[in-house]
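Sample intake sheet
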Amino acid sequence: MSRRSSTFASAALAFLMCLTAGTAAHAGWVLFDDFEGANPFNRGTLAIDPADPANRVYSANFSNTWARVNVGGNAIADGTVGTLFFQACVPAVGVDVSFGMTNNDSADTWSQYNGYTLYKLTGPDFRARDGGTERFLTTLDEGAWYDVWMVFDHSADHYDVYLEGPGLPSPQKMAENFGFRASPGSAAIDNIMVRTSSANNGTVLFDNVYFDTAGENITTPLAGDVIPEPASLSLLGLGLLGVLARRRRSR
């Protein structure tokens, strides 16, 4: 290998090491799902975004049951703080849908949530659970998309909620130090659960789910502060190796 090729290989290796080190530390947002591929949940459907026909979203269009997905490497470990970001839209009133996280791999009801937000009634209301009490936070605009941040403190077993959308041009703290409904103990918070009641006569749409397990992060991941998923890094590495191989063959 020439010194030129060696220098290129060294630079490529250093670049990949920097990327993978950043991923291991979760120093920024990591995309969990944008619903452009397969449905990660066991229930509900993927639907066309009413505001953007080119975009697909997750639709919680079921009644009196649950949907759940394990978040894998995005789990919030005991003694740490992590942030869940997602977007939510209530196309029409008459819904009763909850969206949040649990440590329980077989959870199917509200009492097994750690922390969760609620979209319900004719407001539509935006609410959150504070331990044993459901608290009203604000009223949402029907058909509008909102950015939601849930900051889980797995050392103190409480969470905060931030909201941005119509009338809220920057993230506003809507809930502070709300207690977990179910204590996770030392187990990681590692499942997103969607729960609906029998009163749910419509759907709530969700999109662009991200995690930052390094702490509280009230930035917008859609603005570009995103770490590639491991699969993307692998493809990038293969691409760099391919470039190196072509350089060697051309000599």
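Comment: Residues 1-26, 243-251 have pLDDT under 50 and may be disordered. Residues 31-227 form a domain with the Jelly Rolls fold (CATH 2.60.120.200).
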